[in-house]
Design a protein that fits this description.
Blueprint lengths: L5 E5 L10 E6 L12 E6 L2 E7 L14 H10 L4 E10 L9 E3 L2 E4 L28 H14 L4 E2 L2 E4 L8 H10 L3 E3 L5 H8 L2 E11 L11 H11 L3 H10 L1
Parallel strand pairs: 1-4, 1-5, 5-11, 6-8, 7-9, 9-10
Antiparallel strand pairs: 2-3, 3-4, 5-10, 6-11
Helix pairs in contact: 1-4, 2-6
The structure holds hypoxanthine.
Amino acid sequence: MADIALAVIGGTGIYKLAQLDDVESLQVETRFGAPSGPIRVGRLHGRRIAFLARHGEGHSLPPHKVNYRANLAALQQAGATRILALNTVGGITDGFGPRVLACPDQVIDYTWGRESTIWDGEGGGEALHVDFGDPYTPLLRRRILDAARVTGVAVVDGGCYGATQGPRLETKAEIARMRRDGCDLVGMTGMPEAALAREFGLEYACLAIVANWAAGCGDAAEITLDEVLANVAAASAGLPGLVGELARG
Ligand code: HPA
């Protein structure tokens, strides 16, 4: 099945892609085990698009339990070569407040203890040390930004995604440190997914959906799940159009 124009990995609050037609479900097994759930393949504006809910469709998998390797392997086995990762995040710096969509261009990885490479055993050779200076595929980022412009969806170009271990949210001091490090966004699922995608040879870019101000950055006394889900829903309204346009390109 080689004609998948785009694969989308949905994060917190995005468990299916609205407006997919003729959806079929694929149960894929990989050498890394099972992915988070079935891959839903359907049509959007005439193009075949694959969708996978990163946390499972019932959100049963916390960020540190997601089998990132199996998810990417399964999408690749299904015929995907290009991945749009939707990641729900907190905003740290000005311009990255709730309901903003951003296409980051850098990552800092603060996660630990996750399966973060496909090279478990021997070998790998030159492929072992993949270049990761630009963690997101520049051409795919450009296409996302073009699709956003064409469909009238505001997307911030650039920013640094700090990937934390979770599942708890961060302390104010941790966010202050991340700000000093240069992070604009904080989320729990950006890594190792991006690095694994590079190892798999997949084109990969992130569209981050800001759900809340990170700890200590806004006026809210605390971050609530209700706030997170309401902001993701509001910020996601333009996504089907953007994804359809992206798949066309
Ligand atoms: N921190 C980490 N991950 C997140 C946040 C946050 O504030 N909001 C949504 N995902």
